[in-house]
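We give the chain.
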Amino acid sequence: MKRNTWQREAVREALASNEGFVSAQSLHTGLREHGSTIGLATVYRALADLAAEGEADSLQSPEGEAIYRACSTTGHHHHLICRRCGLTVEIGADDVEQWAQRVASEHGFTDARHVVDVFGLCAKCSQASTAR
């Protein structure tokens, strides 16, 4: 476990204040707008550390950018993420877990790990799209 520095704590707090996933660049911009002198590389390192320790979720957006959010669930889990508003719902996915293990085993793989996140439009954003 890494030692807790003021920079790491600032990143942790900024991440917790965001509702959905956020990029390192966006988080850095927000910190700087609030007077922080933290550097972008430090934000990236802190986010990577928080993700490695299970304090933050990290995934790749549909555009290929790494995005993060404060993790509210410990252990392996998946997400439903709205592409428009960023609403995120943590979900269990027993069927996905069984499928991943079965497919890995069928191909002779052991110790299989996976990342599954589903991007779509939440009910509110879907309703707004059809109303236009």
The first strand starts at residue 22 and ends at 23. The radius of gyration is 17 Å. The mean pLDDT is 88.
